[in-house]
Amino acid sequence: MPSYTDEQRYEDGRYDLTGDEERKYIEGGGAGWVPSTEEDVLLLLRIRAEARRRMKKRQASREYYKRSRERLLEIARNNNAKKKERFDALPEGEKEDIREKHRWAQSSYREWKREELAQKAREARMRRKPRK
Known about the structure:
It is a single chain. By secondary structure, the protein is an all-alpha fold. It has 2 domains: 1-89; 91-132. It has 5 helices and no strands. Residues 76-101 are annotated as: Disordered.
């Protein structure tokens, strides 16, 4: 079964139709089956209205995430540049102390999480396709 994007699903399902056009589309079997009663038609209309609401919400969330992501990336770039300037201004001895502490923190984390990291590595190898 092919994977659809939300836009393709919206177009294929003809969710752009509303009112009488949507009712005719449903009664004509466009929703996948021909409803036999008025209750079935109303049920399909409710389902499609809810799907339309969810699609609009997803679209708004995507747009908000995109705007926020660009803004947050800019803030992160500025903060990283400031930290780099402060680090570069330190004497060489302090820089080496910071680097050593960082190396120690990384190694102690690896020792502490050794089992978990090994399990993740095994799972990642299992997910990879076998070599031919």
